[in-house]
Amino acid sequence: MESPDHPLAAQCLQTLPKIELHRHLEGSLRISTLRQIARQHNLPFPSNADLPALVQIQAGEPLTFANFLSKFQPLRQFYQSPQIITRVVEEVIADAAADQVRHLELRFTPAALARAQGFPLNEVMDWVIESARRAASQRGLSLALIASFNRHEPLELARQVTALSADRAGSGIDGLDLAGNEAEFSALPFAGLLREAKQSGLRLTIHAGEWGGAANVREAIQDLNADRIGHGVRVLEDSSATALARERQITFEVCVTSNVQSGVCPSVLAHPIRGMLAAGLNATFNTDDPSISNIDLTHEYRLAVQELQLTLAQLKDRVLAAARASFLPPAKRQTLCDSLEIELAQQIST
């Protein structure tokens, strides 16, 4: 097997089949599309040259939680019509397919898509479901959709999204995601809703251990019955939380570049994912918000082998681990894993 910095290894990463468990629709929009929408709808944004500075992390900017979140503020103004929402969904899936993503778990926040024009939440969700299904079929890509709401927003809004998602469980929505400001807002008020969601057949992923500590990871597992943890990179701060996650075989949706850009980790080399893997935790590689971070999943895989020094065989294991943790129904999940193993074996000698 070639060394991680060998040119053939780099080429292999580009063509390597990939699994994405943690990608936000609202952080995945093409700059070229944003420019077109701004012109067509006379949105109050600066010239083409300046737009990326508003919606993407730039060199020299502070790597902080506040700066990272500020990139979402202008993006909320772009969802001006059903056609725009449909377009951006289709483009996100096209971009994932071009990056050799075989299965994409795309999470979206109905309230964020609805807010600019006051669209009904149910209609927004159906626009996303229909366009995502169509695009995934056209691109030959396996797909799961995850509806998201924020812990810093009203409980009633979360209740609406949960009810609408439950109505679409098994027919468009596969899971729920609790996101938002975990440093200042507890997840516990949402426990009842999340329990109802699981009873309806939805799977749960919860942002925890990103801007909050390891106690939030333990809470998400013990009290909220999470199937997966979004980020979770602070879990190693508490040995009991680490042991619990290992015992329950919880999958962590880790996003290395995002964690650095948002100030969670001081650098790629200081990122705790190597320690998580050494502790027996099921950590996977994901993009989070690829447009805001100006990356793709190939970039994250390249960091894994060239900066974090995982071997290609180890990366293959992480790709398979992500597939096994997908929110697909069991039969479809097994089919995905079987086909992925064959494809990976053709590219990586173990």
From TrEMBL:
Coiled coil: 298-325
Record-annotated Adenosine deaminase domain positions: 17-340
Keyword annotations from UniProtKB, A to Z: Coiled coil, Hydrolase, Metal-binding, Zinc
GO terms for biological process, alphabetical: adenosine catabolic process; hypoxanthine salvage; inosine biosynthetic process
Enzyme Commission code: 3.5.4.4
GO molecular function: adenosine deaminase activity; metal ion binding
Needed cofactors: Zn(2+)
The keyword Hydrolase belongs to this UniProt entry's keyword annotation: yes
GO cellular component, one term: cytosol
Record bears the keyword Hydrolase: yes
Protein family per UniProt: Belongs to the metallo-dependent hydrolases superfamily. Adenosine and AMP deaminases family.
PANTHER family: ADENOSINE DEAMINASE (PTHR11409)
Protein name: adenosine deaminase
Natural source organism: Ornatilinea apprima
